[in-house]
Specification:
By secondary structure, the chain is α+β, with helices and mostly antiparallel strands. It has a single domain, classed as RNA Cap, Translation Initiation Factor Eif4e. It contains five helices and eight strands. The protein has an eight-stranded antiparallel beta sheet. The two termini are 28 Å apart. The mean pLDDT is 88.
């Protein structure tokens, strides 16, 4: 398996905190045994303060749009607005296990960069970050097709749609519950974490 790094974003004090001061690297691991040791000793998502986030990313990738390995990518995301009815701890665990078990994508896709959970006043949001938005990117990636090498835009879209469907299945969502994919640059230009969706499943 890959080596993964767990990150934590603590809530802002409201005094103009810098994002880099709020984002903390917790620990890296490269085995399922180590993962369970960490998971059993950190605060459950349901117990986190508002405006907190957990991020689980491949080692060497910061959970930021600006990271060179993320800047051409995007994310699948879903908001759970009924917080009291949402088993967020189970859902977040299942998504993390799918990421480290590499079941969200096929072997040569090279798309999944990390997963994130946001704790907000009106909702929980779980996201899955990808290396591309379906187009090939400079520098490619690890696998034979990573970063979209050798893929047409149609093939790139198919890869992302397949990942999105697996993401939706793991979140145990109904057919009428829509998961959206948007590019990081689209979100940046819109001035929001929610940009117009490129794809939906």
């Amino acid at each position: 398996m890959n080596t993964w790094t767990l990150w934590f974003t603590k809530p802002s004090s409201g005094k103009g905190d810098n994002w880099n001061d709020l984002l903390k690297q917790v620990i890296s691991f490269d085995s399922v045994e180590d993962f369970w040791g960490i998971y059993n000793n950190i605060t459950a998502t349901s117990q986190l303060a508002l405006k907190s986030d957990y991020h689980l990313f491949k080692k060497g990738v910061r959970p930021e749009w600006e990271d060179p390995q993320n800047k051409h990518g995007g994310k699948w995301a879903y908001q759970f607005k009924e917080k009291k009815q949402t088993q967020i701890d189970d859902l977040w665990l299942h998504i993390m296990l799918a990421a480290i078990g590499e079941t969200l994508e096929d072997d040569d896709d090279g798309e999944v960069m990390g997963v994130v959970v946001n704790v907000r006043k009106g909702f929980y949001r779980i996201g899955l970050w990808t290396r591309t938005v379906g187009k090939s990117v400079p520098g490619g990636g690890d696998g034979a097709n990573a970063g979209g090498k050798g893929r047409t835009p149609e093939q790139g879209r198919e890869v992302l749609m397949r990942i999105g469907k697996r993401f939706k299945e793991i979140l145990d969502l109904k057919d009428n519950e829509v998961v959206e994919f948007s590019g990081h640059t689209d979100s940046a230009h819109s001035g929001s974490t929610r940009a117009k969706a490129k794809f939906t499943v």
